Amino acid sequence: MISVVILGAGNVATHLFRVFNKTENITVKQWFNRNLKSLDHFKNSVAITNDLAALTDADIYILAVSDDAIADISGQLPFKNKLVVHTSGCVNIHDMDKKNRRGVLYPLQTFSKAAPIDFSNVPICIETLDKKDYLLLKQLALSIGSPTKRVNSDQRKVLHLAAVFVNNFTNQLYRIGHEITESESAEFDLLKPLILETAKKVQNMSPYMAQTGPAKRDDKKTIKNHLSLLENNHHKEIYNLLTDSIKLTHGRKKL
Amino acid sequence: MISVVILGAGNVATHLFRVFNKTENITVKQWFNRNLKSLDHFKNSVAITNDLAALTDADIYILAVSDDAIADISGQLPFKNKLVVHTSGCVNIHDMDKKNRRGVLYPLQTFSKAAPIDFSNVPICIETLDKKDYLLLKQLALSIGSPTKRVNSDQRKVLHLAAVFVNNFTNQLYRIGHEITESESAEFDLLKPLILETAKKVQNMSPYMAQTGPAKRDDKKTIKNHLSLLENNHHKEIYNLLTDSIKLTHGRKKL
Known about the structure:
By secondary structure, the first copy, chain A, is an alpha/beta fold. Chain A contains 9 helices and 8 strands. The longest helix of chain A has 31 residues, at 153-183.
């Protein structure tokens, strides 16, 4: 049995609580949040507290709080030599107070409050200073069915950065697709199967091999037509920059 | 029974032949290509020809050829008053020779040579000058299980443009994610579940609602960290432009 205390009440904290709570060999001994109201919904399933001094004994303390709060809360913990981990993609492991054993449990996935999460689709990147702590965190992640990967700080940071490209920026391209189609009363819904297929394609093929379209072919006529259709200058700029990027990748243009 | 002649031997032509050939109420009467060798593999399943003068009678002639060849081939057809359609997202319906009835059958999906296509995931955008022709093309598309949508030229053109954003440009963001992770020997594979989840999310939620991340929160510290990690100036430019785009969309920045 692995015992855990969760600190924080955001999306990651809540999804972790839910999955831990239904996993046989994990027990959530306590859930801390500054604002107790956020935990009110769960008070019948777990001991809740808003008092750091009242934290109970556990194998792992998980700081699922905002990046800026990690260093501060780690310094206020009223114990030492315990395993304390944060869940951030970009906060340095050494930013946490060294009075405790330190680690990172970074779930590489997008979490919505509403949608349930299948943790077998959540790769968990683990970083620790101590080998024994790594094994315990790996056991915790495997217990909820997640694939795991040991990473160092530099790797975790580039994964977080790359996640912004493939998730936030990609989603913004979907948004622009939405705006463009709406401008002519065309249906964004018609693009949804294409969006899904594009994501599926790179599950088994490199993005390099999966590329198609006018930029890769350097099809000047189509590119010109597209630019003339774009009324929004910001969209034009994005079209030009990503077209150049594809041309560079596929040898149609030199820096 | 709908009879069809296919012209061209690219990805779209080949996938259409395959699905038509196994559909009960569609018969492919002939397959034309300038270069007969490309059709050699299919010569036992269908009559093949490289001679436009030898084209046989059919209900629909499908010009699945490159954009630049559509006008030319349509002018060379040795018959008139037949239904002739092209499959391009951006060629004007009036670019085809008016001696025949004209239409467009634009499949809004990415086609790979190797991977089989499930046509129930291929919305087919139909444009015709004549209502009766529209009904025939709709029947053809429904026979292969595709959802259909009647669109006008302007709508088809913006759908094609939006497809470049959500498919080609998105795929290029995956490629950049690949380059960034490889630069630190991190595994691109770890990002694949996130890529798929990002695409799935907008199947039932608008991209606007689905957005998360540092740009939407205007998290200056993380944005600064990310920019300092990016060594490639071109990637930096893309990061800045898409971050600004998200900020504009979510009211964090004004034009």
